[in-house]
């Protein structure tokens, strides 16, 4: 609320400077209202537990693979929210959110398969989770590719880069050390599958929230002239001829961002569906389960873009 009121006050002051005096009554009233409201709100930077409602506090000194996973997931989600709340978010972060979603779904599928093999989940439920997460991963791959073609020229904060790298490392470690066939991991270091699935279900909720917020960004960024792409890949116009020849980035038009806008909405829907699907992994296996078979391979994270590649292209 404070942010909106501050923007309102700035806009009203700007208006008063640039209009005729006989038209100043309305913007002056708005400026006075916004100023009084900001004073009434007081210190809006004070810490509040309400800002932490969306996620529980992670262990401060994680011990063992499960606590390490929990801490990595919570830290990443917290910093991702902060990045999306910036006035002009980084497209590198938006791209990375889609990339991390693919990785989370790949690990979730592997854990569900492990749960099925252990007799804790029915084959029908495991197959449904596998198919739905695979479909969601495909959508997130398309979304990642769309965000890769544009930039806001904003770089992510160091804290986010650190958090996303830590999460990528933890997820990769789970796949390679704990879930690969014939591994010889120390039993004390083997992950508890049920607990890990619970943490990944929480993370799926975070993803649904993050992708919903991200899906609202393309259109206002485009309308504000803050979303750029290489002139050479955009519609050729007389105005862009020099920029194309110089290899520059230019602001994209709304009609040129239609596919990005649509794919972002699809990504938001896909993460909501994936979150609902992962709830299935909580259901115990039926006592009359059919003979176990190997599930089809899940969405592989082998070809995932490294989460540390976060530096966007320079505009100049």
Strand order of the largest sheet: 1-2
**Alpha plus pi helix count:** 10
Total domains: 2
| DSSP helix fraction | 55-70%
First CA to last CA: what distance?
Answer: 35 Å
Q: Catalogue the unreliable spans.
A: 47-55, 287-296, 311-316
The tally of beta strands, per DSSP, is 2
Biggest sheet features: 2 strands, antiparallel
What is the rounded Rg?
23 Å
What keyword list fits this structure?
316 residues; 2% strand; disordered C terminus
Describe the structure.
It is globular and about 80 Å long. 59% of the residues lie in helices and 2% in strands. The chain has 316 residues and is mostly helical. The model is unreliable at 47-55, 287-296 and 311-316 (pLDDT under 50). Helix 7 packs antiparallel against helix 10. The longest helix has 27 residues, at 91-117. A two-stranded antiparallel sheet has the order 1-2. The protein has 2 domains: 2-41, no CATH class; 64-282. It has helices spanning 2-18, 25-41, 64-84, 91-117, 123-148, 158-178, 193-215, 218-223, 241-246, 258-278, and strands spanning 228-230, 249-251.
Summarize, please.
This protein has 316 residues and is an all-alpha fold.
């Amino acid at each position: 609320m404070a942010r909106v009121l501050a923007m309102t006050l700035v806009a009203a002051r700007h208006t008063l400077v640039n209009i005729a005096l006989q038209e100043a009554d309305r913007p002056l009233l708005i400026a006075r209202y916004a100023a009084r409201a900001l004073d009434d709100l007081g210190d809006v930077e004070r810490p509040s537990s309400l800002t932490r409602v969306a996620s529980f506090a992670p262990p401060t000194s994680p011990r063992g693979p499960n606590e390490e996973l929990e801490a990595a997931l919570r830290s990443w989600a917290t910093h991702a929210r902060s990045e999306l709340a910036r006035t002009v978010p980084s497209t590198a972060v938006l791209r990375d959110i889609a990339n991390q979603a693919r990785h989370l779904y790949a690990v979730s599928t592997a854990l569900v398969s492990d749960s099925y093999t252990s007799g804790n989940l029915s084959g029908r439920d495991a197959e449904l989770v596998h198919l739905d997460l695979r479909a969601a991963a495909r959508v997130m791959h398309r979304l990642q590719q769309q965000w890769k073609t544009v930039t806001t020229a904003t770089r992510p904060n160091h804290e986010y880069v650190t958090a996303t790298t830590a999460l990528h490392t933890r997820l990769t470690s789970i796949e390679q050390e704990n879930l690969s066939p014939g591994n010889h991991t120390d039993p004390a270091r083997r992950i508890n599958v049920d607990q890990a699935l619970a943490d990944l279900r929480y993370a799926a909720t975070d993803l649904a929230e993050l992708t919903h917020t991200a899906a609202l960004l393309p259109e206002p960024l485009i309308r504000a002239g803050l979303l750029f792409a290489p002139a050479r890949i955009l519609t050729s116009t007389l105005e862009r001829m020099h920029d194309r020849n110089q290899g520059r980035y230019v602001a994209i038009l709304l009609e040129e961002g239609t596919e990005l806008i649509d794919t972002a909405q699809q990504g938001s829907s896909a993460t909501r569906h994936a979150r609902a699907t992962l709830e299935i992994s909580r259901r115990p296996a039926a006592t009359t389960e059919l003979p176990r078979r190997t599930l089809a391979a899940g969405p592989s994270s082998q070809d995932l873009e490294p989460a540390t590649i976060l530096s966007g292209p320079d505009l100049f």
